[in-house]
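Hey Z.,

So I finally got round to the iron/sulfur cluster thing we talked about over coffee. Here's the setup:
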Amino acid sequence: MPAVPAAASASLPAAAPRPALSGLVDQFGRVASDMRLSLTDKCNLRCHYCMPEDGLEWLKKSKLLTAAEIVRLVGLGVERLGVRELRLTGGEPLVRADLVDIIAALRRNHPSLPISLTTNGVGLAGKAQALAEAGLTRLNVSMDTLHHDAFLQLTRRPFLDQVLAGIEAADAAGLRPLKVNAVLMRGVNDGHAAGLLGWCLDRGYELRFIEQMPLDADHGWTRDGMITAAEIRGLLGGTFELAPDPRSREGAPAERFEVRHPGSPALLGTVGIIASVTEPFCADCRRTRITAEGKVMSCLFSRTEVDLLALLRAGTSPDDDDAVAARWQDAMWAKPKAHGMGHPGLGDADFVQPDRSMSAIGG
Ligand code: SAM
Ligand code: SF4
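And the result:
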């Protein structure tokens, strides 16, 4: 894992001292209630926009949050800090052998907490039923294309059929509403956007396109290479009619659109577009992220990380819990106002790509 500099993004002001407020509040008045927790940095795919071909140097097991530490952290988040929903991610969370036990323990402690999982779907077919029985609420499965050759090109692995079987098993296990995440890459799968949407609509799945962010380990992202949200709307517009979804966005990263056949009043379903780069939603961000080794990242693009693991391992008394909660609050208090791309007054020149890839943060 590359060393991560401790300095915050240069263009952003230093945080004022944190007042004694409850919850995960930042200096700009945002309150984080959506916890994203990475279970591992390991993955069995090598998506171009995320991982290098040879993978990364994986964290040693001793550096990963244990199941007990995960349960304790989520407990602190929910019981003291106002966390209202949890998403488990990675790396690929399905590669973690104790995943079902972790979900079962979280469910026992938090019977009504929405717990979702983002997965690439490889190996999901054999685990979907157990995940549902353990208490998982729902799933996002990442699948960028239905074409085998493009899937292989994007992920560098020939596992599309496994992903399709995983989606089918998740649906059969009742893990709904099922969402499908897709990243488009120019010249690879951008021509498949409308076909993928049609496939999802036919099955009642909600497709969400994510603009490619500069979080690839190879640092190959370019603004011109990225397919923008406006382009995505155009790509879909040849086949479907999109109208803004009148329901409130409520801090969700995806802007939702109702989908119809041109000229038809019949609603086919909705599609989401997450325009993190060109239409950023930082002002309404409600997320707090914890990496697989227990570091708080207040933003995906943050270059500042705050370690909770050492404090978690220092002891389990109420005083130790107080210290962990306070450090988590400090980390969130210093959350930057914006990530530096696509905001008025903040151009690409103000943006410095984090050293961590998406897989090492937890998307
Ligand atoms: N391995 C799991 C998966 O792929 O679903 C979970 C982790 S992955 C980092 C979470 C999400 O981040 C996936 O939907 C993936 O497509 C997305 N992602 C990864 N790198 C990205 C990037 N550079 N820009 C936008 N989305 C990215
Ligand atoms: Fe693995 Fe997910 Fe990154 Fe693809 S996007 S390499 S599946 S962590």
